[in-house]
TrEMBL record, chain A:
Originating species: Alteribacillus bidgolensis
Keyword annotations: 2Fe-2S, Dioxygenase, Iron, Iron-sulfur, Metal-binding, Oxidoreductase
InterPro entries attached to this UniProt entry: Rieske_2Fe-2S, Rieske_2Fe-2S_sf
Entry keyword NAD: no
Name of the protein in question: Ferredoxin subunit of nitrite reductase or a ring-hydroxylating dioxygenase
From TrEMBL, chain B:
Keywords, in A-Z order: Hydrolase, Lyase
Chain ranges of the Amidohydrolase-related domain: 63-348
An MF annotation (GO) of this entry: carboxy-lyase activity
GO biological process assignments: secondary metabolic process
Domain of life: Bacteria
Phylogenetic placement of the source organism: Bacteria, Bacillati, Bacillota, Bacilli, Bacillales
Protein name: Predicted metal-dependent hydrolase, TIM-barrel fold
Length: 119, 356
């Protein structure tokens, strides 16, 4: 199984995104406030925007009703820097508005201080 | 692998001024109002643009924090050099937008003059690929014509910019503006602004307004056509910017059907509305709906011409359309028309081909 150390855990703070390479693939590493790490291709599946410039943020949920926002998923959603499309890191990088679509993702594990990406 | 370059004629690029940058171009007393009295143009939108960085692409904001679109070198690197633009048409950032001001037209006219001078010095004369739009304060028709006379003959000014908001520009009161445009081989470029529609009000949510921007575009096209602008000024062309394009067949069919019934009211029309549109109205593509190739080709067929659409990116705004990804694959001949030749044929002042 191909795997690679892409950075140290201390290289990005909670709520931050870091660009890296997995082999020749340009990827992003995301760290949530709960110190979970995720890795995705650094390219939006819509028009190819660089996701390294996206925002890790929360999202309004489907529990909202007209005129009443319900907001959660703090820092678990990637919002594209161009069109704002939302991808749920905890749900395989699936798009909130269309869960049939998802970002290409990679597995991540932490050993000591190393962030290791693998297929 | 190097990205394939696209020799694009981009019909909507938003350069942005910061108020402090145009102070030196403003005459007194208007300079005083901006510098000391902190004047900014009135704005009404009750929402933000709820993507990730307001109206801008998050990755287009300058590393030093300046707003997206405010620096030529950064735009060259991120857009013009990266894509391989042949030409780009600057359309301003709509802030300031002199023709959208609801009063104090003297200030609007001074602002337009200052903006044009700033645009020429900092953009048009700094990059051979960039062409510009003449800003005017059209509410004061006669002052607007003076400004067109002042800068309209500049070789890199290709159109006059008018906002689509609460003024219907086809009204005969504004026709001297079109006469001046025709005199200087300038086209009219129209882009929606605030307030967004003739009625002047807002829906509750941004997504409603943004979805229905084409309705404002349809209103102004119908207004320009039925007020006889295009027969009165046969060399004039209208570029409708940033309304998308899937509404075009509907509008042509509807106007033609109405014209068959109601021609009596507008006897000055010498041609069917759809023929006028095909001859004198062009449409920028962004924001492109996501069509399949089959849907896209069907739409071109419904328009009855493949010479109306002109590709636009809307750089650096959040709903930017990538020249690589926004439209479906198409035959090379059609792609060449939409990505460059339709715009080249439309703007008389664009060179035939850029000299290498």
């Amino acid at each position: 199984m191909k795997e690679q150390v892409v950075c140290k855990t201390s290289d990005l703070q909670p709520g931050e995104i870091r660009e890296s390479f997995f082999g020749k693939k340009n990827i992003i590493i995301c760290r949530t406030q709960n110190d979970n790490f995720y890795a995705f291709m650094n390219q939006c599946i819509h028009q190819g925007a660089p996701l390294g410039k996206s925002l890790l943020c929360g999202a309004t949920t489907d529990e909202s009703t007209p005129g009443d926002y319900h907001y959660c998923h703090k820092d678990e959603v990637i919002r594209c820097p161009w069109h704002g499309r939302e991808f749920d890191m905890k749900n395989e990088g699936r798009m909130l508005a269309n869960p049939d679509k998802k970002l290409a993702s990679f597995k991540v594990r932490i050993e000591n201080e190393d962030v290791i990406v693998y297929k | 692998m190097a990205k394939k370059q696209i020799p694009l004629i981009d019909t909507d690029i938003h350069e942005r001024v910061q108020y402090k940058d145009i102070l030196e171009y403003l005459d007194e007393p208007f300079k005083h109002y901006m510098k000391n009295c902190h004047w900014i143009q009135e704005k009404h939108m009750p929402y933000t643009q709820p993507a990730t960085a307001g109206v801008d692409r998050a990755d287009a904001i300058l590393p030093d924090g300046r707003p997206a679109g405010s620096d030529l070198a950064f735009m060259q690197e991120q857009l013009l050099d990266d894509v391989g633009h042949e030409f780009g048409i600057l359309t301003g950032a709509l802030d300031p937008s002199p023709s959208s001001m609801h009063g104090w037209y003297e200030m609007a006219a001074a602002l337009a003059t200052a903006y044009n001078d700033w645009q020429i010095e900092h953009w048009l004369e700094k990059d051979e690929r960039l062409y510009g739009s003449v800003h005017i304060a059209a509410q004061d028709r006669d002052e607007a014509v003076k400004e067109i006379e002042r800068v309209g003959s500049h070789p890199k000014m290709v159109q006059i910019l008018l906002p689509i908001d609460d003024i219907m520009w086809g009204d005969p009161y504004y026709h001297p503006i079109f006469e001046a445009a025709e005199k200087h081989d300038l086209m009219i470029g129209m882009h929606h602004n605030e307030p967004p529609v003739y009625y002047g009000k807002w829906p509750r949510y941004f997504i409603e307004w943004h979805t229905l921007i084409p309705t404002a575009h349809m209103k102004i096209i119908a207004n320009m056509i039925f007020n006889g602008v295009f027969d009165k000024f046969p060399k004039l062309g209208l570029m409708m910017i940033e309304g998308g394009f899937t509404h075009i067949p509907h509008l042509m069919w509807k106007m033609d059907q109405q014209f068959r019934d109601l021609r009596h009211e507008v006897p000055w029309l010498k041609r069917k509305p759809s023929e006028i549109m095909k001859a004198q109205v062009r449409i920028t593509t962004q924001p492109a709906e996501e069509l399949t190739k089959k849907e896209f080709m069907s739409l071109i067929d419904q328009m009855g011409t493949d010479e109306m659409l002109c590709f636009s990116t809307d750089y650096p705004h959040w709903d930017y359309d990538s020249p690589y990804r926004a439209l479906p694959n198409m035959e090379p001949e059609l792609k060449e028309k939409i990505f460059s030749e339709n715009a080249r044929a439309f703007y008389p002042k664009l060179p035939d081909k850029r000299e290498e």
